[in-house]
Design brief:
With 247 residues, the protein is α+β, with helices and mostly antiparallel strands. It is built from five helices and seven strands. It has a domain of 169 residues: Nuclear Transport Factor 2, Chain: A. InterPro entries: NTF2-like_dom_sf.
Length: 247
């Protein structure tokens, strides 16, 4: 991949994260009211599900990978409050949906470049401090661990925000950090189990004689943007974690 091509991609992703379009003009139709909650029960954010169906041959068996994660109500409320503050005081056009879409694209691009050891192509998306740490770690990784870093966009099973923090300092500089968590499937030649990680899923394509084994892996990417007047409207990745792979 040529440097100019990656630079154009990095610029597009930065603009997608920094300047998302405004809120949609039309609201979806309101759902029909259901029965009121029973006394003594509190309403909580629902569990989140994500799935991917593997296509087999005509009439052949299929397997679906389902990722289930129950969101902490306290964390859910805290992150929504922080997003509200961002819209009220920093960027009235900030959209969680658009940010998440851009973060997924950035994660896929950066993870694949990490897997290929093309760190010099990450300067537009990753901070200088994070790149320095990555260069030391990547050089020590075995080949199968490097292969496991790559996440194709359609292999990302689930994405959610891990934490949102808003910072001010005495000089009037203000910035936001958003930690994003990703669950993705990867077919690298890893052991059947990694300490602290999910077990291997065997996804079947076609019939019983055709199986493809994939790992369900996690990654944490932290995005930062400065909102001080006059600062560039770009999001930068300041921390990258692939537990049990990139340590």
């Amino acid at each position: 991949m040529a440097l100019s091509a990656v630079s154009r991609r990095g610029s597009c992703l930065a603009r997608a994260l920094a300047a998302p379009p405004g809120w949609p003009q039309a609201l979806p139709p309101a759902p029909r009211p259901g029965p009121p909650p029973r006394p003594g029960r509190c309403l909580r954010p629902a569990a989140r599900f994500a799935s991917s169906r593997a296509r087999g041959s005509a009439g052949g068996p299929q397997r679906r990978v389902v990722v289930v994660r129950i969101t902490s109500p306290a964390l859910w409320l805290r992150t929504r409050f922080c997003f509200l503050l961002i819209r009220l005081y920093f960027d009235p056009e900030f959209s969680v949906e658009e940010f998440t879409r851009g973060a997924r694209q950035a994660f896929s691009l950066v993870s694949k470049l990490l897997s290929q050891c093309k760190l010099d192509l990450l300067e537009e998306l990753v901070s200088e401090e994070a790149l320095k740490v990555l260069k030391e770690k990547i050089s020590l990784l075995p080949d199968n661990h490097r292969d496991a870093l790559a996440a194709e966009l359609d292999a990302i099973m689930y994405t959610t925000e891990g934490d949102v923090r808003i910072y001010y300092d005495d000089d009037g500089i203000k910035f936001v950090r958003i930690l994003m968590r990703f669950w993705y499937l990867n077919g690298a030649n890893l052991p059947d189990e990694l300490p602290g990680e999910a077990k291997v899923f065997q996804i079947m394509f076609g019939d019983e004689n055709t199986k493809e084994k994939k790992h369900l892996l996690t990654a944490n990417y932290e995005f930062q943007r400065e909102f001080t007047e006059g600062a560039k409207p770009d999001w930068t990745i300041t921390r990258i974690e692939h537990p049990k792979l990139l340590e």
